């Protein structure tokens, strides 16, 4: 049997600490299977926004941004060529990241629940105002970006297929698109109408404020597929998590899928929270989102059935015991939370859990 390979890309800030968390948890799951799990780590430590700003003027920042983007794009392409299906990436500078997302056609996917209703958010990261290039003149930055029929079709096609996978018996109940289409001379509306006819489904295109109003008034109808431009979804993702997902951004992970044909839908897992540079080196960053990403990678891409359920059960037990980092009201370090998690994994409900080997408690 071939050993599965998971890619790992690390940014500055708290990236090295979270990479260690990911490796520790994944190694635990590696020991539950016959082949182990190999981690292929990118040799570059990518910049965060804070680390870039410390490097110098705008021209220097622009050069380093492009270097990071080229390197990470090459890393993803190489991993996909070698058969890797998943990468975990800690937070890196958004400008570098969106250059890669544009070139490789990325979408972010997150399934949320609100009571009995479920919502599949498919966030278009491959086009629009977050993508593009900058031109600098004295006192002026001009940003040039595009929308295209081809990218719009690839995003919609993926969203419809993913909906069939999420709800195999009934499929999507409603398909909504949230874009600032009034700024595009009617072109996006025309493309969506064509796609609706071609795929034989009703696709409703709304302005983001209309989507907000409907969600506030009615919540999502069951099995809603919400395809959204970055201009709205980047801001609203955290709000949707709070209202419909019962998670904060500090403890949630999510997935990005690269739709460029050469990437073979390589899935990139990430935390929803950012690089948290102010916490770097202090052993205080919340590891829960990274723990969840490791469990997802182990189950979906390395054949470790039950990894997600076991992890969620262990996290619930930690919460019941009050084990958490300060941002959650706890008094434990990052290392202490991970130690407790690893001690709890696999133990039957009600079994005594020994204290972590390392001191988990922050001094008062």
TrEMBL record:
Alphabetical list of SUPFAM superfamilies matching this protein: Isocitrate/Isopropylmalate dehydrogenase-like (SSF53659)
UniProt cross-references to InterPro entries, sorted A to Z: ICDH/IPMDH (IPR050501), IsoPropMal-DH-like_dom (IPR024084)
Domain Isopropylmalate dehydrogenase-like: 5-341
Keyword tags: Manganese, Metal-binding, NAD, Oxidoreductase
Required cofactor names: Mn(2+); Mg(2+)
Matching Pfam families: Iso_dh
PANTHER family cross-referenced by the UniProt entry: D-MALATE DEHYDROGENASE [DECARBOXYLATING]
Protein name: Isocitrate/isopropylmalate family dehydrogenase
Origin species: Streptomyces pyxinae
């Amino acid at each position: 049997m071939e050993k599965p390979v998971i890619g790992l890309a690390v940014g500055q800030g708290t990236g090295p600490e979270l990479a260690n968390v990911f490796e520790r948890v994944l190694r635990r799951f590696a020991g539950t299977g016959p082949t182990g799990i190999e981690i292929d780590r990118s040799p570059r430590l990518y910049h965060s926004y804070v680390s870039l700003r410390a490097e110098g003027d705008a021209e220097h920042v622009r050069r380093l941004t492009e270097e990071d983007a080229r390197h990470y794009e090459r890393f993803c392409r190489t991993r996909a060529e070698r058969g890797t299906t998943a990468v975990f990436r800690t937070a890196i500078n958004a400008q570098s990241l969106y250059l890669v997302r544009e070139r490789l056609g990325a979408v972010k996917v997150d399934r949320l629940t609100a009571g009995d209703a479920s919502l599949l958010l498919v966030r278009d990261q491959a086009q629009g105002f977050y993508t593009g290039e900058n031109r600098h003149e004295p006192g002026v930055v001009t940003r040039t970006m595009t929308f295209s029929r081809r990218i719009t079709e690839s995003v919609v096609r993926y969203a419809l297929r993913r909906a069939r996978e999420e709800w195999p018996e009934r499929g999507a109940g409603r398909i909504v698109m949230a874009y600032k289409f009034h700024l595009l001379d009617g072109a996006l509306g025309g493309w969506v109408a064509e796609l609706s006819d071609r795929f034989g489904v009703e696709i409703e295109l709304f302005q983001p404020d209309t989507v907000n109003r409907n969600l506030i008034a009615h919540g999502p109808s069951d099995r809603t597929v919400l395809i959204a431009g970055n201009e709205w979804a980047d801001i609203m993702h955290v709000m949707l998590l709070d209202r419909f997902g019962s998670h904060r951004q500090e403890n949630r992970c999510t997935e990005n899928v690269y739709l460029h044909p050469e990437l073979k839908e390589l899935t990139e897992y990430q935390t929803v929270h950012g690089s948290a540079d102010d916490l770097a080196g202090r052993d205080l960053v919340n590891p829960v989102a990274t723990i969840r990403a490791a469990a997802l990678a182990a189950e979906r891409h390395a054949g470790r059935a039950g990894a997600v359920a076991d992890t969620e059960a262990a996290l619930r037990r930690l919460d019941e015991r009050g084990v958490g980092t300060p941002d959650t009201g706890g008094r434990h370090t990052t290392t202490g939370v991970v130690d407790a998690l690893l001690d709890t994994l696999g133990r039957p409900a009600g079994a005594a859990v020994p204290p972590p080997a390392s001191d988990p408690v922050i001094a008062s």
